[in-house]
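Issue 218. Parser rejects a valid record. Input:
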Amino acid sequence: MAIIVSKEGKNAKRIDKATNIKEGFLQKYIHDNPECIPLYDFKEDVQLLILSREFPTESGPLDAIGMDGDGEIYLIETKLFKNPDKRTVVAQVLDYGASLWKNYSPEDFVNVLEERVAKDFHISLTEKIMESYKVEEEEASDLITTLKENIEDGLFRFVVLMDRLDERLKDLILFLNANSQFDIFAAEVEYYRHEDLEILIPKLFGAGARKPVPSGRKKWDKAAFFEIAGQKLGQTRDLRIVQSLYEFSEEHGKVDWGTGAGSGSFTLKVEHPESQKGLISLITVWTDGNIEFRLGNMRSRLGQEEVERYCQKLSTLPFTKLWNREEILHGYGPKHTCAQAFPDEKSLDAFKLTVSEYLKEIKK
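Output the parser choked on:
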């Protein structure tokens, strides 16, 4: 195939498809320009964010790993049509998925992503998500929680990226999508170059085998949150702690509901006279009983000095014994289970009293 380029209908030139494209070029190009993979043919308004190239697995380095605004994970493998083993690329990318699922805990997976994002973009994973999707820290945290859930459950979307698709590869992908729980897509990218312009024509194959997934994220509310929390936690002390923290949040500030796809959350937000960026977040509580202390949000709005002052007030409480200096200085917030955070009723009451006193102080 060739394309014709002209300027104002004159000096038309024929540009032939490039035949000397290299895999390394494709890998770097999708890292810098993820929109060249036309996933919008499958999922409306999708925005793909490439988090890492050459992501390490027990089966070898995965060419690229990405996510979308719903926390879905995309495993991307590139292959050139001229390669004799091009049909094995589907088995290869599935093998990478199996290796990730088997060998990475949710925490290890996110930690490696943190390292890769810091190296490539010089910011944290949370900051990269906030920057890319224009969301607040709470929503970015929700998305990271969804990433963890998806890696634990082995829920991936697989993408094979090639300069030309083999017909037998198309048949294989169509068969797998129609007869399995996998979502596998083949993206064909035709590459042309004219003077200093690069022209790519992307096509997605495999999207028609499944119904499109609706875009948008769920906004949690009290009823939905406690329905799921009850299912996950049962009638346990953990659920009572979650209920107590919700009541405390409702009484002392604003309850802001999360938008996580898998786990629901609420955040206690309060007014601070020195915050120029709106309300500050103190804690986020999830349906699985995890509790995050929002030091990063306070730092971004009020500075490190206020974080130190706040932490000093919490320093006698049991959970602060689990914090390390690095989390206080640079972390986005230590996270603990209910039992870790509040081993007894006395510690929960002490936390609520300390926060109440802090809120009274900042209002004066």
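Fixed in the parser; the record now loads. The CA atoms of residues 28 and 53 lie 8 Å apart.
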